[in-house]
Design goal:
The complex is a heterodimer of chains A (about 475) and B (about 110). With about 475 residues, chain A is α/β, with parallel strands linked by helices. Chain A contains 16 helices and 11 strands. Chain B has a two-stranded antiparallel ribbon. Classes of the chains: A alpha/beta (about 475), B mainly alpha (about 110). At the A-B interface, helix 10 of A face strand 1 of B.
Chain lengths: ~475, ~110
Amino acid sequence: MHNATLKSLSASLSARAFSSVELTRHFVNRINQLNPKYNCFITLDPERSLKQAEAADRMRSAGRGQPLTGIPIAQKDIFCAQGWLTTCGSKILSNFTSPYDAHVVERLNAAGAVTLGKTNMDEFAMGSSSETSYYGPVRNPWDVDKVPGGSSGGSAAAVAARLAPSAIGTDTGGSIRQPAALSGICGLKPTYGVVSRYGMIAFASSLDQGGPLGRSAEDLALLLNVMAGFDPRDSTSLEREWEDYTRELGKAVKGLKIGLPEEFFAKGAAPDVVRAVETAVGEFRKLGCETVEVGLPNMKLSVPVYYVLAPAEASSNLARYDGVRYGYRAPEYADLPDMYKKSRAQGFGPEVKRRILIGTYVLSHGYYDAYYIQAQRVRRLIARDFAEVFKRCDVIMGPTSPTTAFRIGEKMGDPVQMYLNDIYTTPANLAGLPGLSIPCGFDGKGLPVGLQMIGNYFGEAKMLGIAHQFQQATDWHQRMPPGIQ
Amino acid sequence: MRDKWEIVIGLETHAQLNTRSKMFSGASTAFGAAPNTQACAVDIALPGVLPVANREAVAKAVRFGLAVNGSNAVNINRRSARSSPAKTISIPTFPRAIRSASTRRPS
């Protein structure tokens, strides 16, 4: 059951091969048995999940079943879900039970999906390793001494360890794609505005985007079909007609033009990673694709630009956590300002504090033009580079991350080294473009490598089709971490 | 030196628009209701909520600007079309903290 794809689970549920209650119980049992090893989940509520499963079984019996009805999905703990503890990986929200559902959660519930649990993550999605969580680090199923990537590391590791058929996450600078790559699964960050941000706890509003994590491109398409949609409660949600993201899965890739930016293969990427990605590109050539060399000259500025803009937006977004209306409040304080200070000092971890300080600094009077405005200008240049490149090719390919999974603790003492993990993923967020990561091989130690695909705006269906063709010809996405059966 | 200065006096006039809901949330603006009945999840800044500009308020402000033949009507149109610089103001009565500052025009 736990190795089946969403499509086959859906078919089995439809054919009454097993019920949603049986399926959910199977995953709950696996989680009980294996989660202590990986620490993928912050909150589990099997009783609530099984009630949803019963309702899903009734939906199917009544002939109202949809593709995801009855399928358990793990949710990153950044999505507000009514009645669920929603912590965002932070002590400051360690007592926050959400009174409302995020738009994405509403849509999953309406489709009859079962909430399997809330997954562990870097605190407020600030991190590339899932180590900054108040709830302890997530461990990579391929090697428990390694990180699973981040910030959606709990979601990625749960899918990799077969503790969930699929999961949802968010991506501000690579937080879906990078953990997907390091954990050997698939992940998609859609075009900015495709998935509503309502109820998704904000980190950097102009970059945040929700998306699916799963074991195949086809599974991502099925999940995105439910997640995407217009929502008037998010001013940046795009009012577009519903589209079927599975519609190009059967399309041949012959004649497709793949752009290979030299910046993605320059020094900095580990040789094993480059080798695996180049082999994958060779596979696409065999499938009849053409490759063209392209340049993204401003891409090298992505990390500095990102680490000005994202903290700037975070410093505003995190001002609301003051210990007054909800969340953690310091037990002892002298007066109101002291209560704010102590609650925030005790409630936030070091990485979150670092970014609030950077953000406040770059927005402060006298530095605003030099940092924030300048970064916005460079952001526009990065987006223009992509616009030029997409005149010459259909899709861009390169590595998702410069290295495979690194040791837990290895980069925690050096924030800049940690930030450089995002070098290949931040450009898509800055430009608002869709980005996809799929497994494409292993390094010498048997750790998975991710192939990144960046498409033009609203290119999700096309990218998923291209990835699906690759997955019909190869089996990297079916490989399992050692010890998982 | 003093002769070179010319006195120019501007008036900043605030007027509350008679919209049924608030500027950035769907909560009611009805006067005299019971305490804590006029605030929604957006007003109390729950995690994950987002402000959405009140369409009617923007329309009314533009209409007023046009009625008094003010140049502001044009500015409002411009501003709504582009993102304004955000300034963070954290005060107990405004927990959401993000506020559009009018210290500069959108470039």
